[in-house]
Amino acid sequence: MRRIAVLVSGSGSNLQSLIDAQQSGQISGAQIALVISSKPNVFALERAATHGIASRVIRTADYSPAEYEKALLNTLTEHSIDTIVLAGFLAILPQGVIGAYRGRIVNIHPSLIPSFCGKGFYGARVHRAVYESAVKLTGATVHFVDEGIDTGKVICQCGVAVAADDTPETIAAKVLKIEHQILPEVVAALVADRIEWVDERPFIRRGEEIG
Ligand code: GRF
User: Fold this and answer.
1) Residue 100 and residue 73 in contact, taking contact as beta carbons nearer than 8 Å
2) Are 131 and 166 within 8 A, CB to CB?
3) At what angle do helices 43-50 and 13-24 cross, to 10 degrees?
4) How far is the CA of 176 from the centre of ligand 1 (A)?
5) In ligand 1, which atom is closest to the CA atom of 122?
6) Which helix (H) or strand (E) segment is 55 a member of?
7) Are 51 and 70 in contact (CB under 8 A)?
8) Distances in whole angstroms, Cα of residue 9 to Cα of each of 32, 70, 154, 193, 194
9) pLDDT level of residue 52 (50, 70, 90 thresholds)
10) Mean pLDDT across the stretch 107-111?
11) How many angstroms separate the CA atoms of 182 and 12, rounded?
């Protein structure tokens, strides 16, 4: 049984989509075993408690960089975690954690990478930038995590149209809906070893098809 840690900083609606997918059987052979929050008192922690999932708050401000890395690694090891999902996690993951879990960490980003990503593009800022740029298509991306900001290989993307009457807030809501679909899909594939590499590009295998 794979053991997943979900790292959060806020409301945890993406965490909820993973809990729902575990309960429905979409994610099988794996258990959400731990929630780590970079902030105290966030709703994601209540969701974890409601579902009997162990949780810890680990704040960067409480540690030196080296101690922060150690605190995360120790906590992940204590809970025998083998897969990490960043779901609205706003802290920077230390290099030691990325190295220890390479190929087993994914992140959800609320735009179509490589657009509207990288330093400073998080949360509502992404959707405001999408709105102001007048692009007609945005969406969500799930990608592997490497040492850069939003630079890891893209696993899955889904687009949504931006309409004339959209606002940054309605764009965010449309994208969040997409996030809740593609994140469980990718995590289900990851824990079932259904991600295949073709010329250094990851694809999800669905039955006989990959894409
Ligand atoms: C999501 O849009 C996520 O992609 C972004 O922050 C938001 C967090 O949502 N990075 P939630 O905490 O999962 O509800």
Assistant:
1) yes
2) yes
3) 20
4) 7
5) 10
6) strand 54-57
7) no
8) 17, 19, 22, 28, 28
9) very high
10) 98
11) 15
> Closest residue (by CA) to atom 9 of ligand 1?
88
Task: Say what angle helices 168-191 and 13-24 make with each other, to 10 degrees.
Answer: 40
CA–centroid distance, residue 199 to ligand 1 (Å): 30
Instruction: Copy the structure tokens of residue 1.
Output: 């049984």
Q: Which sign does the torsion angle of CA 167, 168, 172, 173 carry?
A: negative
Note the pLDDT of residue 71.
98
Residues in the chain: 211
Catalytic sites, residue numbers: 109
* Averaged pLDDT for residues 116-123: 95
- What does the pLDDT read at residue 210? 83
For a mutational test of ligand 1's pocket, the pick from 39, 107, 108, 109, i.e. the residue with the most ligand atoms closer than 8 A to its C-beta, is 108
Question: Quick check: 109 and 150 in contact, CB under 8 A?
Answer: yes
CA 53 centroid distance within chain: 17
pLDDT at 211 over 90: no
* 11 CA distance to ligand 1 middle (Å): 7
Checking if the pLDDT of 208 tops 80, the result is no
Q: How far is the CA of 172 from the centre of ligand 1 (A)?
A: 10
DSSP 208: T
Check if 110 has its Cβ closer than 6 Å to any atom of ligand 1: yes
CA-closest residue to ligand 1 atom 8: 88
